[in-house]
Specification:
Blueprint: E1 6-9, H1 17-20, E2 42-45, E3 62-66, E4 77-81, H2 91-94, E5 97-100, E6 118-122, H3 130-138, E7 143-145, H4 146-156, E8 161-164, H5 171-184, H6 188-191, E9 200-203, H7 207-220, E10 229-232, H8 238-247, E11 252-255, H9 257-266, H10 270-274, E12 279-283, H11 285-288, H12 294-303, E13 309-314, H13 319-324, E14 334-337, E15 350-356, H14 362-376, E16 381-385, H15 389-401, E17 406-409, H16 415-427, E18 431-435, E19 450-454, H17 460-467, E20 477-483, E21 499-501, H18 509-521, H19 524-539, H20 548-561, H21 572-578
Parallel strand pairs: 5-14, 8-13, 8-14, 9-11, 9-12, 10-11, 12-13, 15-20, 15-21, 16-18, 16-19, 17-18, 19-20
Antiparallel strand pairs: 1-2, 3-4, 6-7
Helix pairs in contact: 4-5, 5-7, 9-12, 14-18, 15-18, 15-19, 19-20
The protein binds adenosine-5'-triphosphate.
Organism: Zizania palustris
InterPro entries: DEAD/DEAH_box_helicase_dom, Helicase_ATP-bd, Helicase_C-like, RNA-helicase_DEAD-box_CS, RNA_helicase_DEAD_Q_motif
Domain Helicase C-terminal: 365-523
């Protein structure tokens, strides 16, 4: 950074970004863009003392959906133009009834800076069983969160519900608790069979999230001795899961779509067990209903009884998800939106910044920001999101060479390694997790201090969910989006969020040399894989992948940033799969 000064509003703000950027920043305040804040009196303030908020307005109208194979660098994305945001009221016309619950500011609760995620209603004021109530107490929950308060009575009535609530505000308990209540009233005979029916099926897009949901379910089941929970997520041999389901069949199943489909097709008696489903939950519903998972989900829905209760939960519910929610829910479902009309989908206590810098500076900037953050906050806990599994691996290797305390998680790691890293990161501080989108949604790592997104996220939703790994339960957090100049177009998708520009840090030559050395030490194979994955990811990006000759030039820039004079060659069949077999400038093997 040019050692610049910070132009800040003087009306307040959080001293949080100082940790990520203890150097001085220049915030760009777009003219006439702030809303709902007192007039901004810009003054020069050291960023180490205070960071202000800058609000922008305008609605993003372009939403993207992507396939789940981005991890392999073979993603596809489809641009869908919605009718605009804040559509809760329009949506009444489509189907279902929209209910809005204003999340007004509350006091400072549960250790957070913003208690607004909690309601004033205590669990013991609700019509839930003493068994559940005791478990809720043991879990340390006293008041309900806003989304729990808003959805519980309606779910207990047996209604289908589509619920939207910001990240980290307790949606898991919101669907699990009433679903468990519904199960606990089923006649005992159903539960005592040798191979009992599955009565509650929870679908999650990732293995980590499925495991986490099962852990939360176990907490709530503590006193419901006759109810059990099981997870089927893949990553282990199918036979192993089959054996454990046979040895200890449970009424609650948490699953990822691919593996559930495998069991439907290959596990004797499994489809019969699914005929007992009373409640179906799609956690991260918009993700499960997008093109990457849609087919599997449709098949799963066709395998459970039509007469059931369905609950769809997410922090983001784009218009197109409302349009297709009839795939899963009854016509008279309730849409419960706890994000107040006009409020942002992200948390106000999370400061968001973006930086636009040439690709060849990204590793140095990343190191610089991390070094400063680590030095400022002994309790640091950082997640860095990268575009693909292989780019994640590369970034983790570079940062490890630089002696930072790095862990790595993505789809190419074994499930046991993923679980180990995930458990460690949940419990620890002083760690940096470099991750692909396997950690983007739902995973609840407490006290993450900073989320960095390197490269353009798949879509607006993914940006919001990744950012949502920090600032959970009303706590402070920071987010940084690091883009190359040609990725700047993405900002129009998030221009309604409170995100401000930070100028490019001026990384000193010592740091640059150190980073170059670290990059040089990384194995060639990692670089080759990262290059291939990078090309696949951006090739499938509707904006960047449109012009192939430009894409090839940008990929060359990426390969140079890894210190390679000549971009690596790519196997012919992979180039063909990407539709890049005859593009000049690409080398093939
Ligand atoms: N009533 C409550 N009081 C205090 N803490 C709660 C309460 N309900 C849930 N929590 C805790 O809040 C945290 C966030 O919950 P959860 O992971 O369900 O959030 P979420 O809304 O599903 O987030 P995401 O959108 O990222 O999936 C968890 O640690 C959970 O244990």
């Amino acid at each position: 950074m040019a050692g610049g000064d910070l132009l800040l509003p003087t009306h307040g703000g959080l001293p949080v970004l100082a940790r990520a950027f203890p150097c001085r920043l220049r915030l760009r305040v777009p003219a006439g863009r702030h809303r709902g804040a007192p007039p901004l009196a810009a003054s020069r303030v050291d960023v180490a003392n205070v960071v202000g908020r800058v609000r922008s307005s305008g609605a993003a109208d372009t939403k993207r959906r992507r396939g789940r194979d981005t991890e392999e660098g073979l993603a596809f994305s489809k641009v869908v133009t919605s009718r605009g945001r804040g559509g809760a009221h329009e949506e009444d016309v489509v189907e279902g009834q929209a209910l809005e619950f204003a999340a007004e500011k509350g006091g400072d609760e549960a250790g957070g800076v913003d208690g607004s995620y909690l309601s004033e209603t205590r669990f013991d004021q609700c019509a839930i069983s003493p068994l559940s109530l005791n478990a809720v107490k043991d879990a340390g929950y006293e008041k309900m969160t806003q989304v729990q308060e808003a959805t519980l009575p309606i779910i207990l009535q047996g209604k289908d519900v589509l619920a939207k609530a910001k990240t980290g505000t307790g949606k898991t308990v919101a669907f699990l608790l009433p679903a468990i209540e519904a199960l606990s009233t089923l006649p005992n005979s159903r539960r005592n069979q040798l191979r009992p029916s599955i009565n509650l099926l929870v679908m999650c897009p990732t293995r980590e999230l499925a495991n986490q949901v099962a852990v939360e379910a176990k907490k709530l089941l503590k006193y419901h001795r006759s109810l059990g929970v099981q997870v089927v997520i893949g990553g282990t041999r199918l036979t192993q899961e089959q054996r454990s389901m046979q040895a200890n069949p449970c009424q609650i199943l948490v699953a990822t779509p691919g593996r559930l489909k495998d069991h439907l097709e290959n596990t004797p008696g499994f489809s019969t067990r699914l005929k007992g489903v009373k409640v179906l939950v799609l956690d991260e519903a918009d993700r499960l209903l997008d093109m990457g998972f849609r087919r599997d989900i449709e098949k799963i829905i066709a395998s459970v009884p039509r007469e059931r209760q369905t609950l769809l939960f997410s922090a983001t519910v784009p218009e197109e998800v409302r349009q297709i929610s009839h795939i899963a829910m009854k016509k008279d479902y309730k849409f419960i939106n706890t994000v107040k009309d006009g409020d942002e989908e992200t948390h106000s206590q999370v400061s968001q910044m973006f930086t636009i810098a040439p690709l060849d500076l990204h590793f140095s900037i990343l190191y610089d920001v991390l070094k400063k953050h680590v030095a400022e906050d002994a309790d640091y806990k950082v997640i860095i999101f990268c575009t693909t599994a292989m780019v994640t691996k590369l970034v983790a290797e570079i940062l490890s060479q630089l002696k930072l305390n790095i862990r790595e998680i993505h789809s190419r790691k074994s499930q046991s390694a993923r679980t180990k890293v995930s458990d460690e990161f949940r419990k620890s501080r002083g760690l940096i997790l470099v991750s692909s989108d396997v950690s983007a949604r739902g995973v609840d790592y407490p006290d993450v201090t900073l989320v960095i997104q390197v490269g353009v996220p798949a879509d607006r939703q993914q940006y919001i969910h990744r950012l949502g790994r920090t600032g959970r339960k009303g706590k402070e957090g920071q987010g940084l989006l690091l883009l190359a100049p040609w990725e700047k177009y993405f900002l129009s998708n998030i221009e309604d969020l409170s995100i401000s520009e930070a100028v490019v840090p001026s990384v000193d030559s010592n740091t640059q040399t150190k980073v170059k050395d670290a990059v040089r030490k990384v194995e060639m194979r990692s670089k080759e894989s990262a290059y291939q994955a990078w090309l696949g990811y951006y090739n499938s990006n509707k904006t960047i992948g449109r012009e192939k000759s430009r894409l090839v030039k940008l990929a060359e820039e990426f390969s140079q940033s890894m210190g390679l004079g000549v971009p690596p060659a790519i196997p012919k069949q992979i180039l063909r799969k990407m539709g890049l077999n005859n593009v000049p400038g690409l080398r093939s093997t």
